[in-house]
Amino acid sequence: MAVIALTSGEPAGVGPELCAAVARRFRGARLVVIGDAGLLKGCPNIEHVALAAPRRAGQLNPDNSRYVLEVLDRAIAGCLSGEYGAMVTAPVHKGVINDAGFAFTGHTEYLAARARVPHVVMMLVGGGLRVALATTHLALAEVPRAITRAGLLSTLRVLHADLRTRFRIARPRILVCGLNPHSGESGHLGTEEREVIEPALRAAKRLGIRVQGPIPADTLFVPWRLKGADCALAMYHDQGLPVLKFASFGRGVNVTLGLPFVRTSVDHGTALEIAGRGKADAGSLLEALKLAVKLAPPA
């Protein structure tokens, strides 16, 4: 049976209560929940990491940001050593971590830095879709200059490799969004498609990667086009994820591709407004656990 590290996330949010809820009923693997034992009552297997300051549900405290990162670091170390077969993460709050003086743009980027890998890819799974992102947590104004030929090619190589090895798809087919409306309308609405995206796709094809695009985002996610496709690659966060989250109805799973270990996560945030009230839905966390078990190497 696989051993899965489950990080409890931002202590003021819904993460601890979601972890406690799933740990009591999940039977697909041995879960080790990492966090403060006082927050995780009812979890059968806890790796204790002490809070830095008292926790009040719904109220962020920057003093606990170092604790949040210590929890992540413990899970990462266990995955790299082989102690854990995969890690599943409850949500963290990027803003309060930055307020505490730590540069933190998200789990995806943090995991890449700690695992010392040059390129990772964020992909959401749910509602019968897989949607990966060429850029992740960036302001919209920064997206065009962040999309480069080399970066796109690296993303496609990681995506192709993990679809084959992790998801066991022999010959993945990837649909690629354009950046601009109508994929640039032959350069009249932007030139990124012909100057950046198309050359990257030609290079990917020379490597044997099955890609199609750039396809306008407003017509990529239609049933006839998705039929037979294994993944869509969106250029930025809010281009592809609203479609997947609509389709998955709170059961989506975030997967980080390109790491030397399996990492999945919920598709939602810390939900501070309902933390501690017993109203949080554990559906996404359960799906994240199921997918982690499916993708994890044999124990």
Structure in words:
The protein is of the alpha/beta class and 299 residues long. It is built from 11 helices and 11 strands. β10 and β11 (262-266) form a beta hairpin. α6 (149-165) crosses α7. It is globular, with a radius of gyration of 19 Å. The mean pLDDT is 95.
Q: Order of SSEs, N→C?
A: EHEEHEHHEEHHEHEHHEHEEH
- Major beta sheet, strand line-up: 3-2-1-4-11-10-5-6-9-7-8
Terminus-to-terminus distance: 6 Å
CATH topology of the largest domain: Isopropylmalate Dehydrogenase
Put simply, the count of helices is: 11
Instruction: List the uncertain runs.
Output: none
The CATH architecture of the largest domain would be 3-Layer(aba) Sandwich
Strand % is: 15-25%
The count of DSSP E runs of length 2 or more, i.e. the number of strands, is 11
Largest sheet: 11 strands, mixed
- CATH superfamily of the largest domain, by name, is Isopropylmalate Dehydrogenase
Helical content, roughly?
A: 25-40%
Radius of gyration over C-alpha positions, nearest whole angstrom: 19 Å
Helix/strand layout:
Layout: E1 3-7, H1 15-25, E2 30-35, E3 46-48, H2 65-81, E4 86-89, H3 94-99, H4 107-115, E5 121-126, E6 129-133, H5 143-146, H6 149-165, E7 173-177, H7 192-206, E8 210-215, H8 217-220, H9 223-226, E9 231-234, H10 237-248, E10 253-257, E11 262-266, H11 283-295
